[in-house]
Design brief:
The chain is α/β, with parallel strands linked by helices. It contains ten helices and seven strands. β6, α9 and β7 form a beta-alpha-beta unit. α4 packs across α5.
Length: 245
Amino acid sequence: MRLRDDLLHILAPALCPGCDQLLMPTEHGYCRSCRASLSPAPFPRDLFTELLHHFSDDHLAISALGALYLFEQDSPVQHLIHALKYHGCYDVGIELGKELGATIKMFPEFDGVDAIIPVPLHRARRRERGYNQAEAIAEGVADAFSVEILADRLYRSRHTISQTTLNAKERQRNVQNAFAAHDHSLVGRTILLCDDVCTTGATLNICADRLLSAGAKRVVAAAVAKDLVQNPNAVQQQISQPFFP
């Protein structure tokens, strides 16, 4: 197996989608240099506090939020997510998910998770892309938690425009009534929602709301990257408290 991998590395060398440098045979998804250089996200308690800038207590369905990295423009993490979403790098999503799962599992906010659900794509977007990038991430996270993935319990009931250029309130309106969940297998369960990037948490929160309405006991959420751009006053405070203990 090692000989085969070394031969493939010589004949068809792979490049890290984060930095375009050669991947060594022992490196999977993205390189060690990128893993070491990416800015870690704040602690879950700080990410949850930031959510309260966008939601009141009675409108927040997520009970915890975790992330692996900070999302920064033109950084390796942006390139990794772009490669995952638009260049078919499904294996990158799995590796990112493994790192995400191993990291958030250390925090008590994520105790008791017994199922993982990826944020779904609309069927038209999935046909266009060929897969759902959140499912790749969920696959890696599930490996770390050793629980099942329930990819078909939550679905997107209508197509929405991209959230990228919208402010916090517009994001909430854009995803309102965009998701649905109906399945008796959700009753009484603690669900972990997975996605690639979280900004204001609008998508994750509406998904959590639908899962709770379908009978889930508790919903926590995790994303590979947390974009703090929409709340610049909190960035420096939270970066000073890195995610990793």
